[in-house]
């Protein structure tokens, strides 16, 4: 890429959509908060004012980047994006889905809590001895061996999700049972008891007129 063009792109990287051409260069060593959007998407248009405001706050940050990707123009960067807008955050090599609220205050609170530098192979200065040792043990591995490690962690994540999904379902079932019992007892009090008392009172008031 032409050097002058690269400098121009880098200087505006926080204010223009990211492209495949500059992705690796501008995101290296930064914690990201990225909006994947489509120009025709109504929800994306609704999010734009809050997102632009958040991007402006991080425009000059050396460690964090709030950015966006136009998925109509950058299909390769959006190959695993299946709905718009999709927000992701974290290290460029391991972005996680954001599933919080989309108003500015919620986005800003989340960014303040999470958009800070983290230990990584390119930020060893932020790693403690334990994590440095882990990185050292991973660096010699082949791509296939690293894929196997990733699969191990993903299986663990899935097991945790499954366990808590089952716990949540049990709680939901218990909540539904309690709500049904509550509704039944309220109905028993209201009808015929309370309803008849009110009817008799209304009749007496009518007779007194």
From TrEMBL:
Any one GO biological process: protein folding
Chain segments annotated as coiled-coil in the UniProt record: 143-188
Gene Ontology CC entries for this record: endoplasmic reticulum
SUPFAM superfamilies membership: Thioredoxin-like (SSF52833)
InterPro entries: PDI (IPR051063), Thioredoxin-like_sf (IPR036249), Thioredoxin_CS (IPR017937), Thioredoxin_domain (IPR013766)
Keywords from the UniProt entry: Coiled coil, Signal
Signal peptide extent: 1-15
GO molecular function annotation: protein disulfide isomerase activity
Domain Thioredoxin: 1-116
A Pfam family it matches: Thioredoxin
Coiled coil keyword on record: yes
Entry similarity comment: Belongs to the protein disulfide isomerase family.
Name of the protein this chain belongs to: Thioredoxin domain-containing protein
């Amino acid at each position: 890429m032409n050097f002058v063009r690269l400098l121009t792109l880098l200087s505006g990287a926080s204010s223009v959509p990211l492209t495949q051409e500059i992705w690796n260069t501008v995101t290296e060593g930064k914690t990201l908060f990225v909006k994947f959007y489509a120009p025709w998407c109504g929800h994306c248009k609704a999010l734009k004012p809050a997102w632009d405001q958040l991007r402006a706050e991080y425009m000059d940050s050396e460690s964090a980047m709030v950015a966006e990707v136009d998925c109509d123009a950058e299909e390769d960067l959006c190959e695993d994006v299946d709905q718009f807008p999709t927000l992701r955050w974290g290290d460029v090599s391991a972005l996680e889905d954001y599933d919080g609220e989309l108003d500015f205050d919620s986005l800003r609170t989340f960014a303040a809590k999470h958009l800070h530098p983290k230990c990584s192979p390119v930020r060893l200065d932020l790693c403690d001895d334990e994590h440095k040792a882990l990185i050292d043990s991973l660096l010699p591995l082949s791509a296939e061996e690293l894929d196997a490690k990733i699969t191990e962690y993903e299986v663990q994540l899935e097991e945790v999700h499954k366990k808590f999904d089952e716990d949540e379902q049990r709680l939901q079932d218990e909540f539904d049972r309690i709500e049904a019992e509550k509704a039944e007892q309220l109905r028993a009090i209201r009808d015929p008891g309370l309803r008849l008392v009110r009817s008799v009172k209304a009749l007496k008031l009518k007779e007194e007129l």
